[in-house]
Amino acid sequence: MSSTVTAIAIADAHAAPFDYAPGSIDFPDLPNVPEEYRHELIRLMAIQAYSEEKAATEGIEWIANAPDYKRRRVFAKIIAEEARHSYLIYNLLERMGVAEKQAIAIAEGRAHRPMHDASLEGPLSVGDESNEWIDIMLNHMFLDRAGKFMVGNFCEASFKPWAEANQTILREERGHIGFGFAELRTYLAEKGETNEARIKISNWYAKGLNFFGPPSTSRGARLSAYGLKRKDNETLRNEFRAEVEDVFNELGRQDLIELEKNDFPYRSGNEG
Ligand SMILES: [Fe+2]
Ligand SMILES: [Fe+2]
């Protein structure tokens, strides 16, 4: 290549270095992306890794408490998959120079900007002492379903290694949602139309809606421009809401997802 051609190639590279198309940025590109891109990417990945870790650790005691052997086996596999999801993302962060401890500090809001409390109330309430098996299954039915929309969005991200990890995660989350739904159907068939069922289901539905975080801000537009979050929180939340409504319409049980407060933070009115 002549030196003139090389000079033009470098000039072009400076004019439009990144278009942020899905999967267009890899590890070797990271030193050249804007500092803000790296900052936002690390924050999103740290929050995801932390949520996946909580999904594994908060639910782990239910391996021993599952109602029978078959459910114990399926549930143990789910916990192992959640642990692997968190490992996949922490591992990528480590390769970017962010240690696990540092990532946890970012996710918990001790570094960067704090997160809104209501976003993580779902994952953090999986370990509540008052929970029953059905609560754990409703967590998979609602929180993993909300997660499916977020993870699906991350599959389109501009940072290729993260997008690819999310494709693996998405496949497994679909299985978790299916198990949660099957267990919900069994529960409704056994328990019938109880007020307790309506309370529990509406509570976990509200937690699922809150999981998307507060309505989008100007930061959302920046994340979209960088190809880190192509759809904003509100769009994803509405997709989740439409799917949940379809599921309960099909069950003929729309009454089970009643909200008292229908904006962020969402509330069922049943929290005890
Ligand atoms: Fe997961
Ligand atoms: Fe899951």
TrEMBL record:
SUPFAM superfamilies: Ferritin-like (SSF47240). GO terms for biological process: phenylacetate catabolic process. It holds the Pfam family PaaA_PaaC. It comes from the Bacteria. One of its GO terms (cellular component) is cytosol. PANTHER family: 1,2-PHENYLACETYL-COA EPOXIDASE, SUBUNIT C (PTHR30458:SF0), PHENYLACETIC ACID DEGRADATION PROTEIN PAA (PTHR30458). This is Phenylacetic acid catabolic family protein. The lineage of its organism: Bacteria, Pseudomonadati, Pseudomonadota, Gammaproteobacteria, Lysobacterales.
